[in-house]
Design goal:
Elements (H helix, E strand, L loop, with lengths): L12 H9 L3 H11 L8 E5 L5 H9 L4 E6 L2 H14 L5 E5 L12 E7 L9 H10 E12 L5 H10 L6 H13 L3 H11 L5 E4 L4 E6 L4
Parallel strand pairs: 1-2, 1-4, 2-3, 4-5
Antiparallel strand pairs: 5-7, 6-7
Helix pairs in contact: 2-3, 5-8, 6-7
Length: about 220
């Protein structure tokens, strides 16, 4: 099926609150546990499209020595994320910034690890973002990207929506199916990563609805 774009920036406060209320604890925890295996104990980490900062908070608890810059373009997400960080007492480890992942203000070869969860499906063209990852990553740095992949048909999407958390509100269910329609296929992602110049990246289907791209840091 053809890709149907959704807004790149989710900056409606009600939508941000709905998003933050969705229970992704297990998914986020699994993401964080995998991420901490990819860089050294004193890593400098960039989280692109952090949303409400749930993943950096878990990372800071698993790796207290990590310094994490977490970025997003949505003021509403960052506002909620800052409250979450303060509530978790992680403000010394996590710095939130309003930054466009396609035009990073950071110096080249600055980060030991770049991570991103569920951002790429929001981008009309992820190639500038992937090239920026390559630029700011140290020569032997790691990456960990994960997102939804686009199913083959609308029928499959509707089946996946029926199987999600029954506690999701109608709006939360709508956000989920919109994201599935906007996602890329595994083949499309592999082609984009090749075009970006990122090397030694393993790309694979990691769940019934997610793909993962991973490269371990050698630092």
């Amino acid at each position: 099926m053809e890709r149907i774009l959704e807004p790149e920036v989710m900056d409606d406060r009600e939508e941000a609150l709905e998003y933050d209320a969705m229970d992704f604890t297990e998914v986020n925890t699994n993401f964080a546990k995998e991420a901490v295996q990819l860089a050294s104990i004193n890593a400098r980490v960039l989280d692109v499209g952090t949303g409400t900062a749930r993943i950096p908070i878990i990372l800071s608890q698993l790796r207290p020595q990590w310094q994490i810059i977490a970025i997003d373009l949505a003021d509403s997400m960052l506002e909620i994320g800052q409250k979450n960080i303060l509530n978790a007492n992680c403000q010394e480890q996590i710095k939130l910034e309003k930054v466009d992942g396609k035009n990073l203000p950071y110096q080249s070869e600055q980060f030991d690890l770049v991570i991103s969860n569920s951002l790429i499906h929001h981008l009309e063209n992820p190639l500038p973002f992937l090239r920026e990852i390559k630029r700011v990553l140290k020569p032997n740095g790691g990456i960990f990207l994960r997102d939804l992949f686009r199913p083959d048909s609308e029928e499959i999407i509707q089946g996946m929506v029926r199987e999600i958390d029954p506690n999701f509100s109608p709006r939360q269910a709508q956000l989920f199916q919109d994201s599935l329609r906007a996602a890329f296929t595994l083949a499309e992602i592999a082609d984009l990563i090749q075009q970006s110049g990122l090397e030694n990246v393993k790309i694979y289907q990691s769940s019934e609805r997610h793909w993962t791209a991973i490269k371990t840091s050698k630092n």
